[in-house]
C-alpha cells in the first residue's frame, strides 16, 4: 500500500497564522512531508509569501501587495489578525510576511518537499517565474519543489526556463482526458479540489500517483483519500492527518 504524503496548507493554517515562518515551523514539527505556500511580487520585485493579492485579510496593512515595497510590507503584522485561533499568543503580532528566501532558509535543515503556488491568475507579475526558480536554485538545498498555478501560461514559462522543473496544474473543475493534459504539458501532477476526487474516486484511481488533493480537513475525507492512495493530501490540519495515517499504519493483532 502506497502511503499518502501530507502537505501543510500555508503551513499549519488551521492553528497558526497562515503563510508565516511560525506556521511553517509548526507544520515541520508536526511531521509533514511537504509545505504548501503562495507567492506574489512586491512593488520592488521581491518574491513574498502571502495568499491574497492584497494585504487586508491576513495582515494589519491595506492595499495590494504589488503596490507596496518589501520594506513597507514588513511594517505590518502577519499574525495579529488571527487572534480567533485557539492557540493564539500575543507574540504572533511579531510575525511578518516572509520572503520566499526566508522560508527556504527556514526549511534548509529539513528534507521536506515544497509546493510553491504562483498567484498569477489575477495580476501578471512580470519575471515572477524567473525570480522564483532562481531563489529555489540558490536556497532550495536540492529538495523536491513543485511549482503550481491555476494559470497555465505560468507553468509553461517555468518549463521554458527550467525543463527539469516539476509543474502541477491547480484545478477546481473537471477536465476531459486528464492524462492527455499531463503528458502534453509535461505536468508532474494535477492538484485537484477535494470534491473533484471524492465525488469521482473510481475515475481517478488510475492516476492516483499523479494527484495531490486540496484542502482536506475532515477525518472522513482524509480516510477516504488515504484509502484511495492519492499521492498527497494538502490540509490545514497536518497534525490530524498525520495522526490518522499513523493509526492506520499500525497492524492489528
Relevant terms:
253 residues; alpha/beta; 8-stranded parallel β-barrel; 9 strands
Give a written overview of the molecule.
The chain has one domain (5-54, 98-249): Alpha-Beta Barrel (TIM Barrel), CATH 3.20.20. It has 10 helices and 9 strands. An 8-stranded parallel β-barrel has the order 1-2-4-5-6-7-8-9, surrounded by 5 helices. It is an alpha/beta fold and 253 residues long. Strand 6, helix 6 (178-185) and strand 7 (189-193) form a beta-alpha-beta unit.
Helix content: 25-40%
Largest sheet: 8 strands, parallel, barrel
Question: What integer is the average pLDDT?
Answer: 97
List the domain count as a whole number: 1
Rg, rounded, reads 18 Å
> Structural class, from helix and strand content?
alpha/beta
Give the overall shape, derived from the CA principal axes: globular
Euclidean distance between termini CA atoms: 18 Å
Question: What's the helix and strand layout?
Answer:
Blueprint: E1 5-9, H1 21-30, E2 34-41, E3 47-49, H2 70-73, H3 100-107, E4 113-118, H4 128-139, E5 145-149, H5 152-161, E6 166-171, H6 178-185, E7 189-193, H7 194-198, H8 201-204, E8 211-214, H9 219-227, E9 232-235, H10 238-249
Parallel strand pairs: 1-2, 1-9, 2-4, 4-5, 5-6, 6-7, 7-8, 8-9
Antiparallel strand pairs: 2-3
Helix pairs in contact: 3-4, 9-10
Brief description of this entry?
By secondary structure, this protein is α/β, with parallel strands linked by helices.
